[in-house]
Design goal:
15 helices, 2 domains, Sufe protein. Chain: A, globular, alpha+beta
Amino acid sequence: MNKLIQWLAYGSLVAAFVAGQLHHSKNNEIHSLDLTQGFTLEKMGLMDELYAARQGDTLMGYLACGQAQGYGGPLEVAVLSDTSGHIQNMALKHHVETYSFVEKLKANYYFRQYKGKVLADSFAVHRDVNAVSGATISSAGIARATRKASYTILEKGMQQHAPEIEKQWRVTPKEGIVLILFMLGVMATFMKKKNLRYLTLGLSLIFFGFLFNASITLSHFGRILLGYLPDMHHHLAWWILMGGSLITIVVWGRNVYCHALCPFHATQMLLNKVSGINMKFAMKTMRIIRKIPGFLVWLSLVLILLSSNPTLAGYEPFAMLFSLEGYGVQWYILPAALVGSLFISDFFCHYLCPVGATFKWIKKQRREVKILFSKKQNAQEDEQPKKTKERKIA
């Protein structure tokens, strides 16, 4: 029965992914955007999404789309230019960014700064384009997507040479701190040093929590399943934390992130130490409620795959605690998790956390693969003496 339920769950995830991709391809039309109103669009070429914008028989400009990676995954913008090489208007055509980030951009009039810019601009954040604090990654992603669309118009529409922009590594103190903390977490886990682990958790609470708001969430796994891997040049911290956590589990079999790096885990430990209370459920009850995180992971992933949006079904209250940004069910989960931690050690980790449940599932698959290879190797070793004996008899 357990195997049947497991395979039904896997099958439902595959079906959700296929349905989500089909729905996404049908509902990503350029003609539904407001900036196309009043224009007749004529497709130019086959490869690029480039259009000639006409009013009657008069060519008024060009419209092109460009894509780049944002915080939640790929985002796409549409850029409308005039015939002299200036941007007339632009809009987000499609995105999977967190709702609060997009609202920040709108509230700070982020999109207005693109109007009137020349198509040959480099669109470099902090130099040519102003980023919005608290939505820097989204700001940079939109700038890169706008540059791609503008250069498409310049080269394919107006037959002009676009500037060559070399990819540069975005390395800031943040990337260095993430790398150092991850290495400390690995050391604390490998050496089993309790004091080093407490130090690492305390530092993660400060940096991964309040300063960077860089907790691993279910949306990270959703991005991987959807193929929305961020560009390593611009998202090195993501690759260090997420990639490093997965590698240590697959290669070493240890969950370094949950053990020594999760800032929400550090918060729960601190609250439980303050209260000094550690209640426990009855064994029968515990066996039942420990299945809750796995069910929530499955349900959330179904919604993520159906919508092709990795940020849609994240219910973790991490962002709400560390940056006071949240929505929906997170308003109820955060106080429940904090109050629960006062009475039950690691309440959220054990009974609600989708990240811990996902890492636990990966560890389980690693263990099963290891057992499978071990059985195969033992079978080969048992077979070898038999073959040797048969050759001697022959």
